[in-house]
Amino acid sequence: MREFLRAAAPLVRRICRGLMGRHHSELEDVIQECLIDVARALPAFRFESNVAHYVTKIVMRRTIEWRQRDRERAQQHRQLHADVLPAAAFDEARDARANLVRHLLDELNEDQATALLLKVMLGHSVEEVAAITGAPLNTVKTRLRLAKMSLRRWLERNGEKPRARR
Description:
Layout: H1 2-20, H2 27-41, H3 51-80, H4 93-105, H5 110-121, H6 126-133, H7 137-157
């Protein structure tokens, strides 16, 4: 089990960092909880898919749940301190894009958010996203299309102008 978890840890860490942000204060806790969940779920693995896909599903679910709870806590704190606005400081373009996607994820439903995370932040192909989520290929394409439309609307609401098409 120790060897398996040691081999799975880089994948778990990559997914958690992508979803939570590299500098999130609770990142290490999320990674540990995800590894515990993977260890607990391993006896139920039926070898019907790639083990990396199985681990990815478990970690995605746990991290999305954690993000949801974190977002609810943040909302409660904002209500307590409504006069204090967080300063938006983006040092690197990559971190800025990742942060932008995390804000968008707060507005998407779970299926669209998962598809977008797997495709954009983790670099999976559409076919891999379909295999990981267990959804038909066309469903994944629709989820990605709807998520991109939501991204465009979100950008427009926040003052961004659409890019000229090539």
